[in-house]
């Protein structure tokens, strides 16, 4: 039986393909994304610091993963990544992050199951129409006919992308890497 809470050994690491190089400094377009808390969220209109971690897809316990999923560099690990952001949520807030969101191309109804099962203290956003993905050219890949986001994390300040984590690996360390970056930036700003 597949477990989603931990990562298998020997997962292939993704390589930087350059598909996120255009994102730092980019001002986000006005696009409203449905969230699992019932809101419509426009990332371009948020004030302060926001962290958005994008992931390919969440699995549902008892349902099989796509064929060869563990062999696709960077595909596996959506649940461990979400759990890490959940577990570091208070630390992120203490570091000045006002908004945390997960983002995938799955619809809100599908995302609701994982948000509830994992007890996430932040909403998941759905770009099921691919509006944000196409508009800012987020990196994607295709599995079994489905277009999915490559794992990427955006730090957004007042509607513009200030930093990008890409590729993200291992996914369960992503939240800690974001925190380390924010603490380093704060220390640099105080010098």
TrEMBL record:
InterPro entries, per this entry? Peroxiredoxin_BCP/PrxQ (IPR050924), Redoxin (IPR013740), Thioredoxin-like_sf (IPR036249), Thioredoxin_domain (IPR013766)
Q: What is the organism field in this record?
A: Xanthobacter oligotrophicus
Name of the molecule in the record = Peroxiredoxin
Q: Which Pfam families match?
A: Redoxin (PF08534)
Task: Tell whether Cell inner membrane is among the UniProt keywords.
Answer: no
Please give the CDD domains that the UniProt record associates with this protein.
PRX_BCP
UniProt keyword annotations, A-Z: Antioxidant, Disulfide bond, Oxidoreductase, Peroxidase, Redox-active center
Q: A Gene Ontology MF term for this entry?
A: thioredoxin-dependent peroxiredoxin activity
Domain Thioredoxin: from-to ranges: 22-187
EC code: 1.11.1.24
Q: Which PANTHER family match?
A: BCPB PROTEIN (PTHR42801:SF21), THIOREDOXIN-DEPENDENT PEROXIDE REDUCTASE (PTHR42801)
Q: What superkingdom heads the lineage? A: Bacteria
Name the top EC class: oxidoreductase
Query: Keyword Transport: yes or no?
Result: no
> Membrane-spanning residues where?
none
